[in-house]
Design goal:
With about 240 residues, the chain is of the alpha+beta class. It has four helices and 13 strands. It has one domain.
């Protein structure tokens, strides 16, 4: 494994934000993800019409302006389904009763964002890795090395982040190993790809999230704008 993946693995427990490979994008890798409240993006999502969360609980990928390469939404109650813990309404350490997005034989999943549909490309994109089954030797069953790569509006790579040996060694629906991968780029993200470096087509993700962080208007700027408007009214009356 390369040095970037080793650094990512060492940061999992702390959830530290870090830049990986490309200085123009910031990548986040964080563990202990049991619900959207644990997302590093949860703070910018509230009352934000430009932010979307796809939890697949309605059985489809149908949030606006995004498509994915060949995948399959799992059935709730499946013995090997591994959703984000809280999606079934209970934080009980088990993801069998929710839904997730299954790799369906593919070693990577690419999410593509449509600027025309959304009005603008998202500046924040995240996905939660939830489980893996069979991988190629010497990677042990139920564990995988994972890499996430983001791309700009022109399809250029913004860099990557990854983590080693994710998983609990089983496919029984455990959720303690769930990991959030996110990318932030102010110029807009056109694609996010998550890859199984263990070469398996038997893995799951959940909680695709994407959007634009609102730009706050400083109080001083508001006052300045109000003053200019008032001055304009005065001038029109003179």
């Amino acid at each position: 494994m390369n040095r970037t993946l080793a650094v990512a693995a060492s940061l999992l427990a702390s959830g530290v934000s870090f830049q990986a490979h490309a200085a123009t994008a910031t990548f986040i890798v964080s563990s202990s993800y049991a619900s959207f409240a644990d997302s590093p993006f949860s703070g910018i999502a509230a009352a934000n019409p430009l932010f979307f969360l796809e939890d697949f609980e309605d059985g489809a990928l149908n949030t606006p302006g995004v498509s994915a390469t060949s995948t399959l939404v799992t059935n709730a109650g499946g013995a090997t389904t591994d959703s984000v813990d809280g999606d079934d309404g209970a934080l009980d350490g088990n993801g069998n009763d929710g839904r997730s997005l299954y790799s369906n034989g593919a070693t990577s999943i690419t999410f593509t964002f449509d600027a025309n549909a959304l009005g603008v490309l998202p500046t924040h994109v995240g996905i939660v890795w939830t489980d893996v089954g069979e991988t190629l030797l010497p990677t042990p069953f139920g564990k995988d090395d994972v890499l996430v790569r983001a791309f700009d509006a022109n399809g250029n790579s913004l860099g990557f982040a990854g983590a080693d040996a994710l998983g609990d060694g089983s496919v029984s629906g455990g959720t303690a190993e769930d990991v959030f991968f996110g990318a932030i780029f102010s110029g807009g993200i056109s694609k996010l790809t998550i890859v199984s470096l263990g070469g398996t087509g038997d893995w799951e993700v959940d909680h695709l999230q994407y959007g634009v962080q609102p730009i706050p208007v400083p109080g001083a700027a508001l006052l300045f704008g109000t003053a200019l408007a008032g001055l304009a009214r005065v001038r029109r009356r003179v």
